[in-house]
Amino acid sequence: MIFRSFRLLGMVFAAYAFLAPHDSTHAQCSNATLHGRYAFTITGQILTPAPAAGPVSGVAMTVFDGQEAFTQVDHVLHNGQPPQEEWRPGSGSYHVNSDCTGYMILTPQPAVPADASPELRLEIVVGDDGNEIRTAVSGSPTVPSFTSTIISIATRVHERVGFSW
To answer: What phi, psi does 145 have (nearest 5°)?
Structure first.
């Protein structure tokens, strides 16, 4: 009877250790934390200036190199209108601090001039051991200030090796 109680107690402790939330207070991040492909969902609104104001929503596929550079394509609707270019390319740089905060600088590179937008600075938080990124557009380093509430959430796209139908 005592042996069964110890065995049950051991199983409970093992289950707790396995299921307990990961302690992220000591998370260590770096630029290398972001590597591979990430699928972003973008939502928000440009508040000012008036010509650009309106709701924004879209998606992006971003590839981080683990060394401060990324490339991406995005499809962003502005005021409900789709872009003229189905997938607008862009590239930029990023920096991840040891506390898993950081920033990205995105330079859109559209082939269609009507789909142009300013270079953007995004503040980022990296979570889930680099499998998730949350962003907030904080402005542009190259154009006069604008006000927005644009945020995005991304998850790493895991490649399936050896998978077939």
So the answer is: -60, 150
